[in-house]
Write a structure and sequence with these properties.
Blueprint: E1 2-3, E2 21-25, E3 36-38, E4 49-51, E5 57-62, H1 63-69, H2 71-96, E6 105-110, H3 111-129, E7 134-135, H4 137-144, E8 155-158, E9 172-179, E10 183-191, E11 194-199, E12 229-230, E13 234-241, E14 244-254
Parallel strand pairs: 3-9, 6-14
Antiparallel strand pairs: 1-7, 2-5, 3-4, 8-11, 8-12, 9-10, 10-11, 13-14
The chain binds zinc ion (ZN).
The site of zinc ion has 8 residues, from β5 and α1.
Protein name: HNH endonuclease
């Protein structure tokens, strides 16, 4: 278990840093018109707080490591665009109908890249406020800076509540989860109506015996006991015609 010190690249444990420590936006530039709400950090311990995203920057990666993560900013932007398209097309189909021959419309995104975006964003948020956070930086850096993804149940999961409908709400909210004060368990994201859970590799399991999220007491009740869908592979929209449910759009998430 490595402990992080400020003014150093958090990936320095890989021994391949290059260039000076650079500045980056805590949330990707291309999402900055969004409202950002955080909870559970020093400035917002017991309440949700909206923050001005544009001057929300950190310096905790060297130039090389910062640059190699910037590709994930494009993936999250693409995900947001695809997700909005799903919503728009679904509304159009519901209103005006569609040609069965032309569905399903298929979209593809990279789950690995998305996972890395959520992970680096979680670290950005946590490190800015808790420089003494404890997690296995070596293991995390090895995964983030390679083509690997996290092993079950760690990394990125979707936790979609039945009946959730996207209604054009662009806010993003983050709730980092700690154990024993400084040990990072993971982070909960509310992002375009979907709930995402990012879990940090650790010795203890953040899940109960049913595979549901089992958070330390006092953390984000609306996430507790949620069934999580680790490395989700598809998101679909559908329509009922006669007695048949027809898949109209399918987002394939590649791992
Ligand atoms: Zn570095």
């Amino acid at each position: 278990m490595a402990i992080y010190f400020m003014r150093k690249c958090w990936a320095s444990i890989l021994n391949d840093c290059e260039g000076e420590i650079t500045r980056e936006h805590i949330i990707s530039d291309n999402l900055l018109n969004k409202t950002v709400i955080t909870e559970g950090l020093a400035w917002c311990k017991d309440s949700r707080k909206e923050i001005g995203a544009s001057n929300f920057t950190v310096r905790h990666l060297c130039k090389k490591h910062n640059n190699s993560l910037s590709v994930y900013d494009s993936e999250i932007k693409y995900y947001v665009e695809v997700f909005k398209t799903l919503y728009r097309v679904n509304n159009k189909f519901n209103k005006y109908g569609f040609s069965i021959k032309k569905v399903p419309i298929v979209y593809k995104i990279s789950g690995k890249k998305l996972e890395k975006w959520f992970f680096k964003t979680m670290l950005n948020i946590v490190l800015v406020n808790k420089p003494n956070v404890i997690l296995d930086f070596e293991k995390v850096a090895q995964i983030i800076f390679s083509d690997q993804s996290f092993e079950k149940p760690y990394g990125l999961s979707w936790a979609v509540k039945t009946g959730q409908v996207y209604e054009g709400d662009d806010s993003i909210s983050f709730v980092p989860i700690f154990r024993n004060e400084n040990e990072l368990v993971g982070c909960l994201f509310d992002f375009l109506t979907h709930k995402f859970v990012v879990l940090v590799p650790n010795e203890f399991s953040p899940l109960d015996k049913f595979g549901n999220l089992d958070l330390p007491i006092g953390n984000a009740e609306d996430f507790d006991n949620l069934q999580i869908n680790w490395h989700n592979k598809t998101i679909t929209t559908s329509a009922i015609i006669g007695r048949k449910r027809i898949v109209t759009q399918r987002l394939e998430i590649e791992w």
